[in-house]
Structures are given as structure tokens and as C-alpha cells.
Specification:
The structure is a single chain. Helices cover 55% and strands 4% of the residues. It has helices at residues 13-24, 30-46, 56-68, 73-93, 119-132, 141-156, 160-164, 194-207, 225-235, 247-260, 265-272, 277-280, 282-298, and strands at residues 171-172, 177-181, 187-191. A three-stranded antiparallel sheet has the order 1-2-3, with no helix packed on it.
């Protein structure tokens, strides 16, 4: 018999223990665990030095190598964020004396201000399903569902994954709120405006949805995040919005419009489910930019 070289590669015990720690103790999402695994494997593909013997120079070489490949700075920082978390684990759990990744200076990310829709554009988008779908053969409840989805996105600033995961029982009509499980399965309660609540009630009544997944497809199964994203793409040509949009643009618009109308930053942070206030502060820059434009166009001595 001839020998083959198809034996599975040996697993990295320290990396596997770290990923189990993320899943069990940190309650990290499968997506986060996958990204961290890829980051560790990416470094290991270039450098075979045992983890505990790696130096700052090893990681500096890796940093230069991935930047030479033309990777975006956000990608570079994501890889090294995973490596830093891993070495933090080694220092605290495996008595490693030093964290070599901490000695590196990473490239800064150029902050891009999020694009924000106007209130008129939001209105166009939300009303588009009832105008577009009235001449189609789709079930009568589907445009009502699409309106409810967009109303809820804008009303509560939910993430796409959060909205897709909602059950009927998560929406409380009496307290006018929705229970959301965000990143790390952290629970928060978000207020919901009356237009969104009315849209949800109309859709549920027409679609006969009384339990289980809140938003369903033709097969009466929970809608995927991709299907929800495609809803926005379908209606975009029927509006005056000149840019491509995603559900996240509605989240940006929600936050910016809240701040424009006097909401405080801490409240917006809580509503968005941001762990850090610095993440929410990007919206203050958007608001300041909008004020500057308004000033420049309106003030006679601007």
C-alpha cells in the first residue's frame, strides 16, 4: 500500500482553548469566533514560532506582510485585535510574562462619516412597498411586512441581525417597546414609535402571524438577513435616493436624527447597544458637519 499525505493537520491546542474560552466564557457569537480563528490561522500560516516564544518583531513582520498585500487598515486592525485578545488570554490564563503584540503601533483608521438619509428620503423608502407592490401578484401581506421592517429599522435603530432574530413575543404593544438581543447576546429594550407599531400590527393581522418568527417569507419561515437586505435594494429605484443603501444606513439615520433633535449621547448609545461611548461619538461628527453646512448655506456672513 502506498502512503498518503492526507492526514488532518494538527490542531493548535492554545488557539483551540482560547476559542473555547471566547464561546463559553465571553459568549462570543459564531461570527466573532470564526473571525478570530481566521486571524490566528493567518499569522500561523506565515510564522511557525510557538506562541509563547513569539516576539514583537515576529508580529511586526506579519504586519508589514499583510500591509504589502494592500489590505485595508480596518482589516489589519481586526487581525491584530484578535491577536491582542489572544495574548491577553495567554497572559492571564497561561502566565505568559509579556504580550508582544502590545508593543506594536498599528496604522490608524481614517474615520469615514456615515451617510445619513434625510427624513424625506426615509419617508419615500418606507412608503415605496405599498406603491410598488400593488400591481404585483405577491401575497397582500408582503408589502405590509416590508413597510413594517423599514419602519422598525428607522424607529428603533436595530442592527440587521437583531431585526431578523425578532420573535412576535419580543414586541410589546402595551409598553411600546421591543426586546433585542445584541452583540454578545446582551439584552436591551428599545422604544418603538407608533407608526412602526401600527405597521407591525397590520402586517401580523394580514399575514396571520401570531407566534414564532416576527418577519417571515413566502414559505412562512423566518426571513434571512440577506432577504431583508434585498428588500431595501428592491425599493431603492422607486425613490429619489441617489446612493446605494443598506439596513445600516437606516441605523445611521436613526442615530443622527435623534441627536439632531436634542437626544443626549448616552441615551443614543444605550438605544444602539454600543458597548463604548466612543463608537456612538461618530454621530456627533455627522451632526456637526450638518450644522456647518446649514450655517454656510444660510448665514449671510458665513
Amino acid at each position: 500500500m502506498t502512503k498518503t499525505n492526507d492526514a488532518p493537520a494538527k490542531k493548535d491546542p492554545l488557539a483551540e482553548e482560547f476559542l473555547r474560552y471566547l464561546a463559553v466564557e465571553r459568549n462570543a457569537s459564531p461570527r466573532t469566533i470564526k473571525a478570530y480563528r481566521q486571524a490566528l490561522e493567518g499569522f500561523r500560516a506565515q510564522n511557525k514560532t510557538p506562541w509563547k516564544k513569539c516576539t514583537a518583531d515576529d508580529f511586526r513582520d506579519y504586519l508589514f506582510a499583510i500591509m504589502k498585500r494592500g489590505q485595508a487598515r480596518s482589516y489589519v486592525r481586526l487581525q491584530f485585535s484578535a491577536l491582542r485578545t489572544f495574548y491577553g488570554f495567554l497572559v492571564s490564563r497561561k502566565k505568559l510574562a509579556r504580550d508582544p503584540v502590545r508593543e506594536l503601533q498599528l496604522p490608524k483608521i481614517d474615520k469615514k462619516l456615515p451617510l445619513v438619509l434625510t427624513r424625506q428620503q426615509i419617508e419615500e423608502l418606507i412608503t415605496a412597498p405599498l406603491k410598488v407592490e400593488k400591481n404585483r401578484a405577491a401575497p397582500v401581506w408582503m408589502p405590509l411586512r416590508d413597510v413594517a421592517i423599514m419602519e422598525l429599522f428607522y424607529s428603533s435603530g436595530l442592527r440587521l441581525s437583531e431585526l431578523a432574530a425578532l420573535d412576535v413575543s419580543d414586541v410589546d404593544l402595551y409598553t411600546e417597546s421591543v426586546r433585542v438581543f445584541g452583540k454578545g447576546r446582551k439584552e436591551r429594550v428599545c422604544p418603538v414609535g407608533l407608526p412602526a407599531l401600527e405597521a407591525i400590527s397590520k402586517y401580523r393581522s394580514a399575514a396571520n402571524v401570531h407566534a414564532g418568527a416576527l418577519f417571515i417569507n413566502k414559505s412562512r419561515k423566518r426571513m434571512s438577513t440577506r432577504s431583508i437586505w434585498l428588500i431595501l435594494k428592491r425599493y431603492l429605484p422607486h425613490t429619489s435616493i441617489p446612493i446605494s443603501i443598506s439596513p445600516h444606513k437606516l441605523r445611521h439615520s436613526f442615530a443622527t436624527h435623534m441627536l439632531d433633535r436634542g437626544a443626549d449621547l448616552r441615551s443614543v448609545q444605550a438605544l444602539l447597544g454600543h458597548a463604548s461611548l466612543s463608537t456612538t461619538q461618530i454621530y456627533t461628527h455627522v451632526t456637526v458637519e450638518r450644522l456647518k453646512k446649514a450655517y454656510a448655506s444660510a448665514h449671510p456672513r458665513a
